[in-house]
Amino acid sequence: MISRWITAVLDTDLAGGLAVVRGPEGFLLDDNGPLFPREWLKRQPLAVMAEHGIGHLDGEPVYLLELGAAADVEGCHWQGLRSFMLQGDHTLYKVLGYAAQIGTWAREHRFCGSCGQAMTQVPRERAMYCATCDLRSYPRISPSMIVLITHGDEILLARSPRFVTGVYSTLAGFAEPGESAEDCLIREVREEVQVEVKNIEYVGSQCWPFPHSMMLGFHAQYAGGQIVPQADEIEDAQWFNIHHLPPLPASRSIARYLIDLYVARRLGHAEPVLPS
Length: 276
Fold this sequence. Notes:
Residues 139-262 form the Nudix hydrolase domain. There is one protein chain. By secondary structure, this protein is of the alpha+beta class. The chain starts with a strand and ends in a 9-residue tail after the last helix. A hairpin with a 4-residue loop joins strand 9 and strand 10 (135-137). The protein has five helices and 16 strands. The relative contact order is 0.12. The chain is globular and about 60 Å long.
């Protein structure tokens, strides 16, 4: 059975439902996972800084308890969001990814960015409000371009010093104010490897909660230039033949999808589906 997750703004004054707990060490979980009966959690010694109603999972209300400090709960432990990304339940990862983004946004908007006064949550709306400035702050989504550069049977992959050892991936970067998606893609490729691209093709998008990105995925053909990795940003970049690829990103990521899709099209195989 495939679980169904729908985001929503829920009334935290209502009783019942399920909840996830996020603290400095990640999400709380036990042998059954990170979803707990909400009323049971409220009886635990947790330093709850804020509570947010975040949606429905298979019709059941789900809330986020955001902690202000680390806590120990008997029979439970903590796990980072990236670890959940690599595990089997994609819907659960989406729930936790959304929870992380809402928790981060609300934590970062406790005070008004204009006057510094305390902000309050707007009932029945995903917004923080400053009565002094009449300013509302909504969750932010930052557009980012991610691109696989292709040249026949070769694809250009790079690795950052932050990557898992040996893993190579596609190029990516955040859009600057005033840029189109295509402008951003061309600029990022020039900055990171100093090559030119052409025939840019939009492929798909994926929300990425690290911290709050909307990844817009593209294929683009190589148009010229020699690879020169950007200092302090790109550890290595090179062309790889599709028959001899290095270790690649996690299978659920849009980076991996861009690679797998191109390889499948090149070899005449069935095309993969981007996890949504």
